[in-house]
């Protein structure tokens, strides 16, 4: 019995020592700024979680939650721009979380967010331009009104965008999935080297989509009005247009099958094959080296 108690005591001590490194106390820092002082927002963030959202608050508030021994981010106004910066964390175990709350009705001119490996969340924002750049991490944008341009760049990580109203939308990743839903814009550009592109409930005047290795799916709630193009090196392309709306598809595939269910035109290994529906004049160039191409309506 004594041996068992002794063993349990040693085990308990060992486990406490093992996990003690992770039990780092947290520190919370809060900044507050008058809305009239801030026209732009710029954040340079290393790792952790970054959230920017509209809230029931009279001031613009910045709440930073971090491990006690992690470097403290700075927040200050420089010529109308709220600038928040964090130092590069010396250890991936050190955690920093930044929550920026914008008062309801406040429109920012330019929001620019740059991170190394942070997850970025934007919700219910009103801005002229929003730009996010991350090397590694998820980017999620929901229910934002953007009068000029939404531009998202990611080296590696999923990009999810929904409920957006804007002028131009550009999303580019190297390795990652792009998911768009309920988007209204004049021009929508999506590009990834490795990963699928899925866009549903899209209302746009024109679109450009490209991937080297992955499928591309676009489902439109509104017929496009401007010439557009879509291409992939290896992957299936699916386009679904509103019922009864005309178009002219110009299709090239080196290894794959083309099927247009609206015109009943099909082809295999075709080059510049034209499939015109209802005398449509809007031209859509579709190109894949290895993959099937499908056009439908609903």
3D architecture notes:
By secondary structure, the chain is mainly β. Helices cover 6% and strands 66% of the residues. The chain has one helix spanning 2-19, and strands at residues 26-33, 40-55, 60-67, 74-78, 81-85, 96-103, 108-123, 126-136, 139-142, 145-156, 159-175, 178-194, 197-213, 216-220, 228-234, 237-241, 247-255, 257-260, 265-268, 273-277, 283-290, 293-297. It has a 5-stranded parallel β-barrel with strand order 7-8-10-11-9. The radius of gyration is 25 Å and the shape is elongated. It starts with a helix and ends with a strand. Mean pLDDT is 89; it is low at 1-5 and 10-21.
Helix and strand topology:
Blueprint: H1 2-19, E1 26-33, E2 40-55, E3 60-67, E4 74-78, E5 81-85, E6 96-103, E7 108-123, E8 126-136, E9 139-142, E10 145-156, E11 159-175, E12 178-194, E13 197-213, E14 216-220, E15 228-234, E16 237-241, E17 247-255, E18 257-260, E19 265-268, E20 273-277, E21 283-290, E22 293-297
Keywords:
disordered N terminus, 1 helix, mainly beta, single chain, elongated, about 300 residues, five-stranded parallel β-barrel
